[in-house]
Amino acid sequence: MLPPDSKMKRETAATMPGMASDADLERLRTTASLEADELFLTLMQAHHEGGIHMAEDAAGNAEDAAVRELAARIARIQASEVAEYQILLDELLAGGT
User: Fold this and answer.
1) CB of 19 within 8 A of CB of 54?
2) What are phi and psi of 11, to 5 degrees?
3) Which of 59, 29, 47, 56 is nearest to 85 (CA)?
4) Entry pTM
5) What is the pLDDT of residues 63-72, one digit of tens each?
6) What are the helix (H) ranges across the chain?
7) Which residues have a Cβ under 8 Å from the Cβ of 75 and sit 6 or more positions away?
């Protein structure tokens, strides 16, 4: 695990698709109620979509079979979670809980 203030962690966060920026996280911390729920789901959806691309790449290109299998499983799980986030967003925006 990288230290929270490491240069590599900052560079990865700045270039990895789907990573929330410091401004996104600050907005999430300071936003209230349903707007915060919507922002959380939107950020997580983007984060997982970025993770799917990374996992699919590893599933197709990793040297180790166990890593390929794990990556494929991660891609499937995150795709399912993205769909769940969308359902919750749709319900939230329609006024349901």
Assistant:
1) no
2) -65, -40
3) 47
4) 0.76
5) 999 999 999 9
6) 7-15, 22-30, 33-61, 65-93
7) 51, 52, 55, 56, 59
